[in-house]
């Protein structure tokens, strides 16, 4: 029985997460700016940039790892189902 390729799953995960990253960076700035505006946090522009960078590094790393293993799991499940029928 063939196994799902972790390399292919990783490539797919990185591609999908890159798209999400392009959406999340501006969204992160908007959220922090909104939080400043309503008084939840009070940060400088430099701190805003640092927070968005940190937030996106953490979320991107977790997303790539999570997506890779979820993709491999589902693909292995699909392959197992195909070989059992």
Explain what the structure shows.
With 85 residues, the protein is an all-alpha fold. 86% of the residues lie in helices and 0% in strands. It is built from 2 helices and no strands. The protein has helices at 6-38, 45-84. 7% of the residues are buried.
What is the alpha-carbon Rg in Å? 19 Å
Helix/strand-derived class? mainly alpha
Q: How many E-type strands?
A: 0
Tell me the number of helical segments per DSSP (H or I, 4 or more residues long). 2
- The coarse overall form would be elongated
Query: How do the SSEs run, as a string of H and E?
Result: HH
Largest sheet descriptor: none
How many independent structural domains? 1
Give the oligomeric state of the chains in this entry, treating copies of one chain as homo and distinct chains as hetero.
Answer: single chain
The averaged pLDDT comes out at 87
Task: Give helix % range.
Answer: over 70%
Strand fraction: under 5%
The poorly predicted ranges are none
What is the rounded distance between the termini?
A: 13 Å
Notable characteristics:
0% strand; mainly alpha; 2 helices
What's a concise summary of this model?
The chain is 86% helix and 0% strand. It contains two helices and no strands. Helix 1 (6-38) runs antiparallel to helix 2.
């Amino acid at each position: 029985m063939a196994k799902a390729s972790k390399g292919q799953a990783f490539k797919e995960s990185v591609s999908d997460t890159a798209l999400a990253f392009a959406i999340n960076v501006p969204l992160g700035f908007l959220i922090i700016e909104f939080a400043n505006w309503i008084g939840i946090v009070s940060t400088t522009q430099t701190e805003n940039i640092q927070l968005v960078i940190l937030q996106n590094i953490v979320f991107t790393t977790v997303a790539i790892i999570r997506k890779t293993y979820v993709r491999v799991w589902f693909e292995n499940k699909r392959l197992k189902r195909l070989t059992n029928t």
